[in-house]
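Human: My hope is that you can spare some time for a protein that puzzles me. I am handing you a single protein, as its sequence and its fold in C-alpha cell form. Could you go through the record with me and say what the backbone is doing? Take your time, and here it is.
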Amino acid sequence: MTEGWWVNYETKRFVGLYCPGMEHEIVIRGQENQDWLGVPPSVAKEFNRYHPQVDRIRLLLFVMKHAPLMRIRGYGCRVQIQYWNPGGGGDDKPYAAVRRWAARWGGPRLLLEVSNLATRRHEHVMAGDWPAFVKGQAKTPQGCSKTGLKTGCKTSRNFRTFGKTRTVKKDGRRADRIREAT
C-alpha cells in the first residue's frame, strides 16, 4: 500500500501520498499541506490535542468532520474513499470529486468503495460505472453488495479499516478480527 490522497471536495485540491510508509496523519499535520488543502486555522489548532500515531484515527475523523476533505487509500485493484458529510448539501460535491479523481487516476475496472462516515452510506461501484451510478442508471457490480465486499482481486489481501483488520480470502469470503488501531 503505497498510494493515498487527501482531496478537498470544495476547492478540488489534492495532496498525494506516494512514498512507502507515508500516512494520512503525517501528511495532514504538515502546515504546507494544511494551507494547500484549505484546512481552516481553527481546525488546525486542535491537532495538538491528538498524539501522533496514538490518536491517529481520532485525528483523521476530526479532520474529515470539520473540513471538506476526503481520504483516499489505494489497495491495488480497489480504493477506499472516506468523507464526512452529514447531508446538509447532499453528496453532489463529494461525488463530483470522486468522479474527477477516478477519471484521472483510476481505470474503469477499479473498484471504488465510497463511504460517507456521517450517514454511514457505503457504495461499491466500478470506476467506469460511477457517472451512471450517480445518475441512478447503474447497479452495484456483480460480486459486491452494499453490506459487504467480495473483492474482484484474485489474490488474498489484508486491508485495514478503522479499528479492524480484514482478510479477504481467494473465494471472496471475509474474515474479520478486531485489532487495536495504531
